[in-house]
Amino acid sequence: MAGAPPPYPPPYPPQGDWKYQRRVMREQAKAQRDISREHWKAYRDQQRFQARGTRSSSILGPILLITVGVIFLLLRIGRLDYTDVGIWYGRWWPMLLLAGGIVLLAEWIFDRSRPADHPYANRSRIGGGVIFLLFLLCIPGIILSASHGDLHSLAHGFSINDDNMEEFMGDRHESDQPLDQAFPAGTSLSVNNPHGDVYVTGTSEDGQIHVGVHKQVFTRSDSDAADKASRLSPTLTTSGLVMSLNVPNLDGARADLTITLPNTAGATVTADHGNVHVNTLKAPVTITSNHGDVEVNAIGGSVIAHINNRGSSFDARGVTGSLTLEGNCRDTDIADVHGAVSLNGDFFGKTHFEHIGSSVRFHTSRTDFQLARLDGEVDITRGDLTADQIQGPVSLSARSYNVTLDRVAGDVSVTTSDGSVDVTAAPPMGNLTIQNRNGEVNVTVPEHANFAVQAETREGEVETDFPLQHSDDDKVSKLTGTVGTGGSLIRINTTQNDISVKKGIVAPLPPPAPPITLTPPAAPESPAAPSTRHSTKPRPPSAEAAGPVI
């Protein structure tokens, strides 16, 4: 100020300037509004963060994850079948949305019932991840609904797997190649085909092996197709008493083999991706199939099969020797086997036995079933086990089956749970032991049989047609006594269901069938031609016709 020339400006705002005062008041009011707004924003954010901190998460997400995880675990260990789950889910997938809505509604009602001063009085929140998971689960449901739950038709329309991957590598080029070679007596055949079907038939009568090779090459180049077809040619080598037929493993190519050899030869077939058919052989057969169906028919020796694909099927008929099947497969059909039959593994479809002349053993992760001889049929599905005309001793240990044993002779032992048990005993009747839980037990015995009974059920009733003693004590019903002269013992125990012992007219089992023969019996010799010589002289009677000599 001192350096400025006069007149000097006043050191304070001009007195009495109303415009200046109004401007100052306006700026002060604006600053006060800004401060109030910032205070409100801070308070709002504080309340929002506090509400979010006290808001509990919805349990819908964990429920969905646990349910999906349990289902996939059961599918992985074989407790559930992919096709059955697909059919069920394609029909009932909207129940997923209904169940989710019910869970959210229950949470909302629970939140509203809390007092206002509760530290978690706010409603539960559902995250975007749960909504996205619901959306992902609905997509396969819609697709399965459109295919009516038929996974096979859906997979047939669009399927990419190890068996048909080569079809996506280009156009198909086909060619055929014959291969003939002498097959010495006493030699067995070993076949290894990585991609393609194998057909083995014992109908060669000239002492040679005849191989027909049908090649399929998938490529977009004709020159590449010709090169692969030439390299796809199988090789026949002999080492000792084993002749080996090997097909090279080429990407984008497969070879179907049709093999004809003498019926006295044995065969060992290994197929990685393809079906195997073997018939009309009188020697042992061994088959290993990783991705494909197996069929054997009219085999005079033993049969050993290893199947490692839960979608494959196994069919065997007319086997004179024993039969052993191991691994994982879907449907199994075994009939007319004279030797022992053994199945060990996991079988996810229908298992059928018919006319087995020796013992049968069926062992899986949930079932152990053994019997001495099968004159009728056995059908095993996911929830039912039915057998007819079986010869004991019979042993069954299973769970979650409805068991029906009709016309069973000899000793019977059944241990099961969560299913009914129906047994009809045929003469000669043996001891019968049934241990069940959460399922009814019905036993039918011949009306003139001699046996003793010890039956007990908890929280159930007992019923009988025979003069037996019936007692009830503290939710336990018992049935005891002896019919006739005794002999066979019937011991039954179950819980939460009924027991019945009835009389019936039961025919004995038929005699065992004769052994299977692959070679038809020889035709009878034709009678000798009559003599063309004729004589008018009467023939003298024989000594027997003339009577005793006097």
From TrEMBL:
Residues of the DUF4097 domain: 188-501
Compositionally biased region (Pro residues): 509-524
Keyword annotations: Membrane, Transmembrane, Transmembrane helix
Transmembrane in keyword set: yes
Pfam families from the UniProt entry: DUF4097
Region of interest called Disordered, as start-end residue ranges on this chain: 509-550
Transmembrane segments: 58-77, 92-110, 130-149
Domain of life (superkingdom): Bacteria
Name of the protein described by the UniProt record: DUF4097 domain-containing protein
